[in-house]
Design the sequence.
């Protein structure tokens, strides 16, 4: 009778670990992630000077340019227009 609770706990733990590790090693499609929230980086007034954080989280544009992070991407998109710079994926361009 005492073995039943131990087997149940073992089963629950092993199922949970299997689920966790399957998510860690699964390939994630970075092209299906949502686009960067560029509205939060748009200037408040005309003489606005953007101050993007010095964080490396690459963003790839359709023009093949890799930006340091979404802030730099959004600022360039705002300055040069959405018709010239479009989001492709998170991560470095290849």
Sequence:
């Amino acid at each position: 009778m005492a073995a039943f609770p131990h087997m149940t706990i073992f089963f629950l733990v092993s199922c949970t670990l299997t689920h966790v590790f399957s998510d860690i090693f699964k390939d994630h499609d970075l092209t299906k992630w949502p686009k960067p929230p560029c509205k939060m980086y748009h200037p408040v007034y005309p003489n606005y000077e953007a101050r993007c954080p010095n964080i490396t989280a690459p963003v790839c544009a359709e023009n093949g340019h890799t930006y340091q992070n979404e802030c730099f991407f959004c600022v360039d998109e705002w300055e040069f227009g959405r018709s010239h710079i479009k989001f492709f994926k998170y991560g470095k361009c290849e």
Notes: The two ends are 59 Å apart (CA to CA).
